[in-house]
């Protein structure tokens, strides 16, 4: 089993994920895994980075496929002493179809799939590990109209099970057509990213009680970046979008302030519950 340090980036074949892999290859002392759902696209991305003199490794990972997630976790457990950096970047933005479809598909990928990757890989995190959950400028609670929902999502006692139930409630309301009346926003993407921000707070609370010391998880708004997801309308380059996620991936040992937080693209800490 390799004692080499290990960094993993989901959805790493293009966009911000690709730029994060590129920077980690330069800055992280260890193996960097570019993971992607599509093997061909993933290997093509690795080839492009090889041409730059960088040496990422590749493994197939479809975050929405339980078998794929389990296989990747088994590969990591069999070949490494643990995970030192995990960047949960894979996400979608559904812009077509009826709202009930958008709601179900968006939270399936952006929240539940991210959580399943965490469930599989968190037991493999080593002391001092850094986890980065890609959120968004839309991952702010002020975008929710419902005060009761705000209260529940911002509760310092919120559990993963309770958060799961709230996200499923949103999907049910979307299917019933009464999500707005129930206090939900009219953007499924907003719901998914607020859920990620909330999950990050819950996860850090668990890590603070974990016998493995100094595990830190943060969520991050990478900025409005020129990617497929933004229809290439973002003013920032993918390299600029990678700056804050990479910064959080490489936080120094003993970090006591930037943990369980919501970090803006300029690396400043915001309160997702208030901003």
Characterization of the model:
The chain has 275 residues and is an alpha/beta fold. The protein has 8 helices and 8 strands; from the N terminus they run βαβαβαβαβαααβαββ. It has an 8-stranded mixed sheet, with helices on both faces. α8 links the parallel β6 and β7. The N and C termini lie far apart (45 Å).
Percent of residues in β-strands = 5-15%
- Series of secondary-structure elements, N-terminal to C-terminal: EHEHEHEHEHHHEHEE
> What is the rounded Rg?
18 Å
Beta strands, count: 8
Name the shape in a single word: globular
Strand order of the largest sheet: 3-2-1-4-5-6-7-8
Largest sheet: 8 strands, mixed
Question: In oligomeric terms, what are we looking at?
Answer: single chain
Helix content range of the residues, please? 40-55%
- Overall pLDDT score: 96
**How would you classify the helix and strand content by structural class?**
alpha/beta
Distance between the termini: 45 Å
Helix count? 8
SSE blueprint:
Blueprint (H helix, E strand, L loop, with lengths): L5 E4 L5 H13 L3 E6 L2 H13 L5 E4 L5 H14 L3 E6 L10 H23 L3 E10 L12 H7 L6 H17 L11 H21 L7 E5 L17 H12 L12 E2 L5 E2 L5
Parallel strand pairs: 1-2, 1-4, 2-3, 4-5, 5-6, 6-7
Antiparallel strand pairs: 7-8
Helix pairs in contact: 1-8, 3-4, 4-6, 4-7, 6-7
Give short descriptive properties of this protein.
alpha/beta; 44% helix; 8-stranded mixed beta sheet; 275 residues
Summarize the structure.
With about 280 residues, this protein is an alpha/beta fold. It is built from 8 helices and 8 strands, in the order βαβαβαβαβαααβαββ. Strands 3-2-1-4-5-6-7-8 form an 8-stranded mixed β-sheet, sandwiched between helices.
């Amino acid at each position: 089993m390799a004692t080499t340090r290990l960094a993993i980036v989901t959805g790493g074949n293009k966009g911000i994920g690709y730029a994060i892999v590129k920077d980690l290859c330069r800055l992280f002392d260890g193996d960097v895994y570019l993971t992607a759902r599509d093997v061909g696209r993933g290997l093509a991305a690795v080839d492009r980075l090889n041409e730059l003199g960088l040496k990422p490794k590749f493994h197939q990972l479809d975050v929405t496929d339980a078998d794929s997630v389990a296989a990747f976790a088994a590969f990591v457990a069999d070949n490494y002493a643990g995970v030192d950096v995990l960047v949960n970047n894979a996400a979608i933005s559904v812009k077509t179809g009826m709202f009930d479809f958008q709601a179900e598909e968006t939270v399936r990928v952006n929240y539940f799939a991210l959580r399943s990757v965490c469930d599989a890989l968190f037991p493999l995190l080593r002391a001092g590990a850094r986890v980065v959950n890609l959120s968004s400028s839309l991952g702010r609670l002020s975008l929710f109209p419902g005060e009761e929902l705000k209260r529940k999502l911002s509760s310092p006692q919120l559990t993963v099970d309770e958060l799961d139930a709230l996200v499923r409630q949103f999907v049910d309301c979307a299917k019933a057509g009464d999500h707005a009346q129930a206090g939900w926003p009219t953007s499924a993407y907003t719901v998914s990213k607020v859920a990620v921000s909330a999950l990050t707070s819950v996860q850090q609370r668990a890590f603070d009680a974990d016998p493995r010391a100094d595990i830190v998880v943060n969520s991050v708004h990478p900025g409005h970046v020129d990617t497929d997801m933004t229809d290439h309308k973002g003013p920032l380059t993918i390299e600029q979008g990678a700056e804050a996620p990479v910064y959080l991936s490489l936080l120094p040992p003993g970090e006591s302030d930037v943990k369980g937080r919501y970090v803006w693209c300029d690396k400043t800490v915001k309160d997702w519950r208030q901003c």
